[in-house]
C-alpha cells in the first residue's frame, strides 16, 4: 500500500521510538518538546551539516540537507549529507548522518540512517548498501552496512511507529537511570512519579485542575 503525502511520518521519530516509545509518543502524539544540552548540541551539528548545499570533492559529489520521501514506507525527512561515490555502474549514494556524542549501544542511530537509505532507494531506484554515522565527541565516522538484519529491524520500527501514531496511546513511563537522565523530556515525563501511568498531559491537567479547584492533589 502506498501512503499519501498527508500520511507521511518523520524519519526522526524512528530514533525517538527506538530510544523510548514513550518519548516518541510525547513528542509526536502529545506534541511536547523540550530542548536540553544534548538536543541543542545536536541541532547545531545538523545546522552546520546543512550549510553549503552541494560541492565536489575530488571525483565525489556531496549533497547536504537532502530531502527524503518514501510513499511506500510512509516516511519523510532530511539527510545531513549524501555522498555520491563514483562506481562503474553509476554514482553510488552513501548517506552520512551527524550525531553529537559517541557511538551508542542501542540501535536508534543505525535505524534512522537505514530508514534514510530505504527512502533514497525508492527515490533513485538503486540499492544503497551502506552509509556512515559521524559522531561529534569522537570526531569519527562509523560505517554502517544496511544488511538484511538492520533492514528488518528498521521495517519493524516503522510498523511500530505507524501503530503508535495511529492509536495515539502514550506508553507508560519506564524509569531507566541512564536513558531518562539524558532525555530532554524528563521534566514533562516525570518517570520516577509516573511509572506505569499513561499520559503526561492528562496527569498534568488533572493535577493543575485539582490545585486550582480543590487544593493540591492527594497523590502528590
Ligand atoms: S524520561 Fe525516560 S521514560 Fe520518560 S520519555 Fe524520557 S526516556 Fe522515556
The level of helicity is 40-55%
Shape: globular
Helix and strand element order: EHHHEEEEHEEHHHHH
CATH topology: the name is: Lambda Exonuclease, Chain A
Which sheet architecture does the biggest sheet show? 7 strands, mixed
Mean model confidence by pLDDT: 85
Number of helices: 9
Distinct ligand kinds: iron/sulfur cluster
| Total separate domains | 1
Distance between the termini: 48 Å
- Helix/strand-derived category reads alpha/beta
The CATH C-level name is: Alpha Beta
Radius of gyration, Cα only, in angstroms? 20 Å
Enumerate the spans where pLDDT stays under 50 for 5 or more consecutive residues: 214-220
- Our estimate of the beta-strand percent is 15-25%
Q: What CATH architecture do you see?
A: Alpha-Beta Complex
* Total beta strand runs: 7
Keywords:
220 residues, alpha/beta, Lambda Exonuclease, Chain A, seven-stranded mixed sheet, 22% strand, globular, disordered C terminus, binds iron/sulfur cluster
Overview of this structure, please?
The chain is an alpha/beta fold and 220 residues long. It has nine helices and seven strands. Strands 1, 2, 3, 4, 5, 6 and 7 form a seven-stranded mixed beta sheet that branches. Residues 214-220 have low confidence and may be disordered. Bound molecules: iron/sulfur cluster. Iron/sulfur cluster binds at residues 20, 22-23, 26, 173-174, 179-180, 183, 185-186, 189, 191. Iron/sulfur cluster is lined by residues 20, 22-23, 26, 173-174, 179-180, 183, 185-186, 189, 191.
